[in-house]
Design a protein that fits this description.
Blueprint (H helix, E strand, L loop, with lengths): L1 E4 L3 E4 L2 H7 L2 H4 L10 H4 L7 H14 L4 H9 L10 H5 L7 H9 L3 H9 L25 H13 L5 H8 L2 E4 L2 E4 L2 H19 L2 H19 L12 H9 L4 H11 L16 E4 L2 E4 L5
Antiparallel strand pairs: 1-2, 3-4, 5-6
Helix pairs in contact: 4-5, 4-9, 12-14
Protein name: HD domain-containing protein
Pfam families: HD
GO molecular function: dGTPase activity
């Protein structure tokens, strides 16, 4: 299977990866937007969890990760619900980890397990994503997941170029199966992009406002029985369609936007990175480099 990623280029994917991508549980990610509800305010920000999940897998592959870690990267977001983290805001889940709590259950998907069984693999191998250190490594260090969503989001909103991404990828290295950078220059560049992503995009007035509006609409729909929590296990368009059967969602969003939401706050997860760097054979955090 040939796959072209819009930031990493074209790749030939092995059979197990191809067959996992073709499962319904993975194809569903095509209809779950990476940025949650922000596409309702800005249709140009329309990249999906599908693209991100494949991107994480490709990045792990570029870094020499074994096939099991590539699969873990591919599957790590299959439990995301409609509108990504919107359900965390609706249910006031401070850690934004609703999808993580569902992950083990979603991994039991029959079609997914049939594919893994065909390739002599067990879904239990992938239950604990934290054992795959290229994929997930605690903040403030780097991980393939963290790197991909930063590069992908920043590219999608027009803040960085493909040339910058290619340059940065050349600055990645691995030590003890975790991601480090080859110089302070790469570390400072990525830290700047990550900070810009969190403050200029995640915490932008546009992003915060549309999620405040959708939080209120969805909470009201849940309370009135228009939707149920399990409807989030579908996708963005399934949830929109179910709401639209009762009222026009776009009109409701427009009306609430017109009234203004500046006085309302949305509690989002706080993030920061302090990349690790190879300095004369030693690994130092950027904050430790003088």
């Amino acid at each position: 299977m040939r796959y072209t990623d819009n930031i990493y280029g074209e790749f030939e994917l092995p059979g197990v990866i191809e067959d996992l991508i073709k499962t319904q549980v993975f194809q569903r990610l095509k209809k779950i937007h990476q940025g949650g509800a922000v596409f309702l305010a800005d249709p140009g920000i329309n990249h999906t969890r599908f693209e991100h999940a494949i991107g994480v897998m490709l990045l792990i592959r570029k870094l020499g990760g074994r096939i099991e870690e590539q699969i873990a990267g591919l599957l790590h977001d299959i439990s995301h619900t409609a509108f990504s983290h919107l359900i965390d805001y609706v249910l006031d889940i401070e850690g934004e980890d609703y999808h993580e709590k569902r992950y083990a259950e979603v991994l039991k998907d029959a079609e997914l397990n049939a594919v893994l069984h065909h390739y002599q693999m067990d879904s239990a191998t992938f239950t604990d994503v934290e054992k795959f250190k290229l994929l997930e490594y605690p903040l403030p260090s780097l991980s393939a997941d963290r790197i991909d969503y930063t590069l992908r989001d920043m590219f999608q909103i027009g803040k960085i170029s493909l040339d910058e991404i290619s340059w940065f990828i050349r600055g990645l290295d691995t030590v003890d199966n975790r991601i480090v950078l080859k110089s302070e220059t790469y570390a400072r560049w990525f830290q700047a992009q990550y900070n810009d992503l969190t403050t200029g995009y995640f915490e932008s007035r546009q992003n915060i406002t549309i999620h405040i509006i959708m939080k209120e609409i969805v909470k009201d729909c849940l309370e009135k029985g228009i939707i149920e929590e399990k409807d989030f296990f579908g996708d963005d368009f399934y949830l929109i369609d179910k709401i639209n059967r009762q009222f026009d969602l776009k009109q409701r969003i427009a009306a609430m936007s017109a009234r203004g939401q500046q006085h309302k706050q949305l509690h989002t997860k706080k993030r920061m990175v302090d990349p690790e760097i190879l300095v004369r054979g030693s690994i130092l955090k950027l904050s430790e480099v003088h």
